[in-house]
Amino acid sequence: MLYVYGFERICVAVSDIYFVDPQPGKGQEGAEHGVRLEVRAIEEGPLKGTIYSARPISVEQPIWRADLLESVDGRPGSFDRTHHHPTFSGWDPGPRVFAKELSGDPLGWLANRLSDLEGVVKEAQADVDTSDAEALREAVPEIVDTVERLLVRVRAGELGTAPEGASGSVRASWL
């Protein structure tokens, strides 16, 4: 399941995910599942028809990511693999950053981070226009509600499941 909340310069993409790290850190072995949220750049393309045609919209490079993950074999609600990636190098995330506050109150922490687009962009050291900050702040309750609903569906086994019949280690709706 993929949700994209688009603004003028950035968007927030939210998806379920199943993930097995091929080179896990100590204590991070085994499959993980949950919800991935990314703040990404968004670009509009030129019209491809008349002035009435739909305008192409592209979800572009990631700026910041939060992974609200849990061990597949662990206790639901533990948020034992929950982390964020405050920086990206191109399309690749920087190292996982585990924060006690993030695992303790992931939805509250997420709401606070999304309410501070300027701080997220500064920490990411990204050259991004933050003029969407107020519109994003207004959408935070709806975005967090979406994350919460996806987490419920992951824990129910409806989403964030292993790829069927494949040896792949990642299954995400889009991200």
Q: Could you tell me the number of beta strands?
A: 8
Rounded Rg: 17 Å
Q: Tally the helices.
A: 4
In helices, the fraction of residues equals 25-40%
Instruction: Give unreliable regions as ranges.
Output: none
- What is the strand content? 25-35%
Largest sheet: 6 strands, antiparallel
- Number of spatially distinct domains: 1
Provide the succession of SSEs.
EEEEEEEHHHHE
- How far apart are the termini? 10 Å
Determine the structural class based on helices, strands and strand pairing: alpha+beta
Shape: globular
Q: Determine the mean pLDDT.
A: 92
How would the blueprint of this fold be written?
Layout: E1 2-6, E2 10-19, E3 32-44, E4 57-71, E5 83-85, E6 88-89, E7 92-93, H1 100-104, H2 106-114, H3 117-124, H4 133-155, E8 170-172
Helix pairs in contact: 2-4
Describe this protein's structure.
With 175 residues, the chain is α+β, with helices and mostly antiparallel strands. The model has no long low-confidence stretch (mean pLDDT 92). It is built from four helices and eight strands; from the N terminus they run βββββββααααβ. Strands 1, 2, 3, 4, 5 and 8 form a six-stranded antiparallel beta sheet that branches. Strands 6-7 form a two-stranded antiparallel sheet. The protein has one domain (2-162). It is globular and about 55 Å long. The protein is 26% helix and 30% strand.
